[in-house]
Amino acid sequence: MRQPTDRTVMHSYPGMVAIVTTHYKEQDNVMAAGWHSYISFDPPIYGVAIGHERHTYNIVKQAGTFAINFLPMEKAEFIQQSGVYTGKNTDKFSLCEMGFDRGITTDAPILHDAYVAYECHTIDVNKYGDHDWFVGEMKKFYRDPDLFQSDGLPDDEKLTIPLYLGRSVYTTTGERKEFRIDQD
Fold it and tell me: Full-prediction pTM beyond 0.85?
């Protein structure tokens, strides 16, 4: 039975993990971010929470740009490593042999294995507790069309999307159900 508690209950999982990439003064960096969201469709705006103590924090702040990448389940180890190791001491791209190209509107790395990626130009930063919410206007979009159906949904036969459960554990989507509701 559910009981009240004075301790914080973090239950936003399972959820997709965004891979934040950035570049500033010859330094590339990557980090996993569990707290991220679309904010607006028109204009396209995306936000991501980055902890003040993260090495990526200062790079994104100074660069004024970042990219959001989404990787398939086959790259879950890279997702985890990019969230555990710090770019201050580790070249995470080399560690996991993750290739990338430079973005078209930013110098942020666009990961070769990303099935979707967005280049963002920072338009706002707000502090909330121990994280800042970086808000970026999405300037360029990338998508692997071979991994999506004609209706725009992921093709479950070709793409397995990892969902983070917490404590270094990942799962995938299970049974798919479709609901068609007629509106008056």
Answer: yes
Tell me whether strands 116-128 and 131-143 are parallel, antiparallel or unpaired. antiparallel
Question: Higher pLDDT residue, 184 or 114?
Answer: 114
Q: How far, in Å, are 5, 38, 115, 145, 181 from residue 159 at the CA level?
A: 39, 21, 9, 11, 27
Look up the CATH number of the domain holding residue 113: 2.30.110.10
- Enumerate residues 6+ apart whose C-beta is below 8 A from 3: none
User: Which residues form the domain of 134?
Assistant: 18-172
Q: How many domains does the chain have?
A: 1
Cα(81)–Cα(98) distance, rounded to whole angstroms? Answer: 11
Over range 2-18, report the average pLDDT. Answer: 84
